[in-house]
Amino acid sequence: MRSGSLARHSGRHFNGPRLSPEQAARQGRISQLAIARLGAQDAIAFLNGNDEQLGGRPLDLAIESAEGLRAAEQRLEERADA
Question: What confidence score (pLDDT) does residue 7 get?
Answer without folding.
Answer: 47
